[in-house]
């Protein structure tokens, strides 16, 4: 009998590839294990076994696999089920999903680099083919697998490479077969021979002439007596005030012994667990309603105003689920995953909390992956961003999606373009678990689903501790300008409130929707604005580096002295960003400590955290920031929030702009006055009568919802209609135009009026590629899967037209 496997490899192929295996391999292999497989002329990939069977492929001859990489599955069947759903729903390949799902350390590829080993070896032990490779490496610093295949003139070179590694003749730079090595922490203990009291007494007597060493031994005892845990080398040095060399000499003498315990990088360093808080009446009611609702619904939306104590309600639910022995996934937008929340949860749940975050290293992610896979006690609760839906859960009981309205849950690029909230609902379904969506400003999608009774619905309308919702005041800056009451970008009202707040020793947050100093530079003489050479956008000015930069492709050049069109030296800054506000604040309030939080100031692993901590510890009086400020932060002393300009959010060319503006402004307002005193929010605008601003100032979600839903009905937008955006890209404008007209026409033949476009997006050229968008609107009663089938058919015919083959097509389901 012949044996075959279907393998998922991380390349965008429509079908899985079939490989042939031996009967022995067939008995050993299981679905979800990794194999190294050859692909194409010379590539090797790490693949995941998706199916084991006996049917030879009909159109090609199955190749043999190179090697089995695991002893057991690293991906379980529930995950494969989710991958399949994502591939179908978001119209991408399983390979795309695999690449997004696995930590990169798991998917090392053929581009492995072979290098010379520093050790000299006896060349006579090498066989002929081995020697050829060895020889080649004496002349070249590195070789790739396919170079070696060329040198040896054969394809399957892994056994040769393997033998060379065993003989220590070569090394691998990026090892395909490297096993993940946990970080080792150094511990010390007293040698066993001093276990008896008399031996110990002797030792201490002997050491009386060496007071420092004596001190080390006493400290060792006191640490282990208080912590009742193994003593770390580092702790002993610190506590005993002795140098590492003194401890080392005790180890050398055989008095102390050093040893290692494998430890996780991501570690909980807190003290004993705290009990969860006693809920107030509103929270309690909400908790009971959620539990009640879960009896019939698998998804519940919790709409709780900012600072109503939603987190504490989640904590109670988590406790209930953990007691049934099931795992919990707590999803948050990347940026909201702060030390603040991590600590808060670790205080309740200690080591059971694992954190999964894109800023963690690949090693750290592998660690969490393995802990989840093994259902380890250390990963009963996973707190993670978007991609943590891909972890190998085996028995999920609950998924919490906090800040569910956040658009960053949708992956924009590359494929899979999935929405983590919606995918979480499917993941929960696979595990027969429950999903709780939480927000102070729910997405229209989720609120709509709740209204349609697809989701359960629970509300908390009061802030915790009866703190009042902040007082929101709209400031008409057109009026203020007329009356000459503006200083730079600050109205007299804002300055008054800021002065008052600072006098009371309270803190201020200023929100500006853009980053950079002064986004656009314009010539006062001819009106020319410097453009990015690769994209269809104006460059923005960054004062800090005195540069003009493109926010789309990263292009940068030194700020110009004169206009490149007319030569005039009068270049002016239009618009304003966080950097400029910061400058102005520093001049207006020279005695206050001012900081800025935006993409530029929060690079690096802990950039964001440092600023938050500084604000918490009141080292900052005034913080100027972008949307990063809005994400679920709980500050104690922020009394005033100033929104510098509401209009640039409202005018953004997107059908969700009004909904987003409402959410952003209410979320940032929610940072004000979270403790006793009522917070104050000032919103500066040219249009104080704009409905959204009226709704924000009265915290009227329902009015916003009804009005926006009306628009969505009228213009056939989500959540009333579903939509798929098709983007075509090419560097030749005429080609992409012809192609997109063909594409749209074919779609219209099937879907008629529900096709919009092709249209050039507001920024029609990015990285030298021209873009065209086509929108497919899908009424609720039209079958989504049939629609997708039709699109795929059209897409395939499109790709078969020779002239269009170089045009890149991107399908984005439920686009944002
Ligand atoms: P939300 O997530 O709804 O914005 P939080 O859960 O952050 O609100 O709660 C706001 C503040 O109130 C936090 O500082 C939290 O510790 C506190 N808090 C909430 N519920 C309770 C409770 N039951 N007992 C004591 N403090 C609470
Ligand atoms: Zn650019
Ligand atoms: Zn000019």
What would your notes on this structure say?
With 816 residues, the protein is α/β, with parallel strands linked by helices. It folds into seven domains: 106 residues, GIY-YIG endonuclease, CATH 3.40.1440; 68 residues; 63 residues, no CATH class; 181 residues, Rossmann fold, CATH 3.40.50; 178 residues, Rossmann fold (3-Layer(aba) Sandwich), CATH 3.40.50; 58 residues, no CATH class; 92 residues, Ribosomal protein S10 (Alpha-Beta Plaits), CATH 3.30.70.600. Helices cover 35% and strands 22% of the residues. The protein has a seven-stranded parallel sheet, sandwiched between helices. The chain is globular and about 90 Å long. The relative contact order is 0.07. The structure holds adenosine-5'-diphosphate and zinc ion (2 copies). The site of adenosine-5'-diphosphate (ADP) has 15 residues, from helix 12.
Keyword list:
DEAD/DEAH_box_helicase_dom, Replication restart protein PriA, zinc, 35% helix, binds zinc ion, 7 domains, single chain, 816 residues, 6-stranded mixed sheet, PriA_C, binds adenosine-5'-diphosphate, GIY-YIG endonuclease
């Amino acid at each position: 009998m012949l044996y075959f496997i279907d393998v998922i490899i991380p390349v965008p192929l429509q079908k899985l590839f079939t490989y042939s295996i031996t009967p022995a391999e067939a008995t050993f292999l299981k679905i979800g294990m990794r194999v190294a497989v050859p692909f194409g002329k010379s590539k090797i990939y790490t693949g995941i076994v998706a199916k084991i069977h006996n049917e030879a492929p009909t159109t090609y001859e199955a190749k043999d696999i190179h090697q089995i990489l695991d002893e057991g599955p690293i991906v379980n069947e529930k995950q494969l089920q989710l991958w399949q759903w994502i591939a179908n729903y978001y119209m991408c390949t399983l390979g795309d999903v695999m690449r997004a799902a696995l930590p990169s350390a798991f998917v090392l590829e053929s581009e492995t680099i072979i290098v010379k080993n520093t050790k000299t070896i006896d060349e006579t032990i090498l066989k002929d083919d081995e020697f050829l490779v060895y020889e080649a490496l004496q002349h070249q610093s590195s070789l790739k697998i396919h170079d070696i295949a060329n040198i040896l003139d054969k394809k399957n070179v892994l056994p040769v490479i393997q033998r060379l590694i065993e003989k220590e003749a070569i090394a691998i730079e990026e090892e395909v077969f490297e096993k993940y090595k946990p970080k080792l922490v150094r511990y010390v203990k007293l040698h066993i021979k001093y276990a008896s009291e008399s031996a110990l007494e002797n030792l201490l007597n002997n050491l009386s002439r060496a007071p420092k060493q004596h001190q080390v031994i006493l400290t060792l005892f006191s640490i282990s007596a208080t912590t009742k845990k193994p003593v770390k080398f580092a702790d002993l040095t610190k506590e005993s005030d002795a140098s590492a060399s003194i401890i080392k000499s005790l180890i050398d003498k055989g008095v102390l012994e050093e040893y290692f315990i494998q430890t996780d990088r991501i570690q909980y360093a807190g003290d004993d667990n705290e009990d969860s808080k006693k809920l107030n009446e509103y929270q309690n009611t909400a908790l009971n309603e959620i539990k009640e609702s879960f009896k019939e619904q698998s998804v519940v939306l919790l709409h709780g105003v900012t600072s109503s104590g939603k987190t504490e309600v989640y904590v109670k639910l988590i406790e209930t689920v953990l007691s049934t022995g099931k795992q919990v996934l707590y999803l948050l937008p990347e940026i909201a995953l702060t030390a603040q929340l991590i600590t808060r949860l670790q205080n309740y749940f200690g080591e059971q909390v694992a954190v999964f975050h894109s800023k963690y290293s690949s090693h750290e992610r592998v660690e969490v992956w393995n802990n989840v896979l093994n259902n380890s006690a250390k990963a009963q609760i996973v707190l993670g961003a978007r991609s943590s839906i891909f972890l190998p859960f085996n028995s999920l009981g609950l998924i919490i999606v906090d800040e569910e309205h956040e658009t960053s849950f949708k992956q924009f690029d590359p494929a899979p373009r999935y929405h983590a909230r919606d995918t979480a609902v499917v993941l929960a379904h696979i595990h027969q678990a429950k999903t709780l969506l939480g927000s102070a400003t729910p997405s229209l999608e989720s609120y709509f689903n709740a209204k349609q009774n697809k989701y359960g619905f629970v509300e908390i309308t009061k802030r915790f501790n009866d703190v009042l919702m902040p007082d929101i005041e709209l400031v008409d800056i057109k009026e203020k300008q007329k009356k000459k009451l503006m200083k730079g970008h600050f109205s007299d009202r804002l300055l008054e409130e800021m002065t008052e707040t600072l006098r009371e020793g309270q803190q201020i947050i200023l929100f500006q929707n853009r980053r950079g100093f002064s986004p656009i530079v314009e010539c006062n003489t001819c009106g020319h604005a410097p453009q990015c050479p690769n994209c269809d956008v104006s460059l923005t000015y960054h004062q800090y580096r005195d540069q003009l930069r493109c926010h789309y492709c990263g292009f940068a050049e030194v700020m110009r002295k004169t206009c490149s069109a007319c030569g005039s030296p009068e270049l002016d800054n239009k618009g304003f960003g966080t950097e400029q506000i910061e400058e102005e604040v520093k001049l207006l309030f020279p005695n206050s400590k001012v900081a800025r939080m935006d993409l530029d100031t929060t690079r690096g692993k802990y950039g964001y955290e440092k600023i938050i901590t500084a604000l918490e510890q009141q080292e900052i009086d005034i913080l100027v920031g972008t949307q990063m400020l809005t994400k679920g932060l709980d500050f104690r002393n922020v009394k005033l929030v100033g929104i510098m300009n509401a209009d640039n959010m409202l005018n953004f060319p997107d059908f969700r702009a009004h909904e987003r503006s409402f959410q952003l402004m209410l979320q940032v307002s929610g940072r004000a006055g979270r403790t006793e005193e009522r917070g104050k929010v000032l919103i500066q605008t040219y249009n104080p009568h704009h409905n959204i601003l009226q709704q924000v100032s009265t915290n009227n979600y329902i009015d916003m919802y009804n009005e926006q839903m009306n628009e969505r009905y009228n213009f056939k937008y989500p959540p009333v209609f579903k939509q798929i955006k098709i983007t075509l890209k090419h560097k030749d404008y005429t080609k992409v135009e012809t192609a997109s007209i063909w594409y749209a026409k074919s779609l219209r033949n099937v879907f008629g009026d529900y096709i919009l476009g092709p249209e050039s997006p507001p920024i029609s050229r990015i990285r030298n590629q021209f873009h065209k968008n086509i929108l497919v609107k899908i009424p609720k009663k039209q079958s989504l899967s049939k629609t997708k089938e039709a699109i795929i058919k059209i897409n395939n015919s499109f790709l078969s037209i020779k002239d269009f083959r170089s045009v890149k097509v991107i399908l984005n389901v439920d686009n944002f």
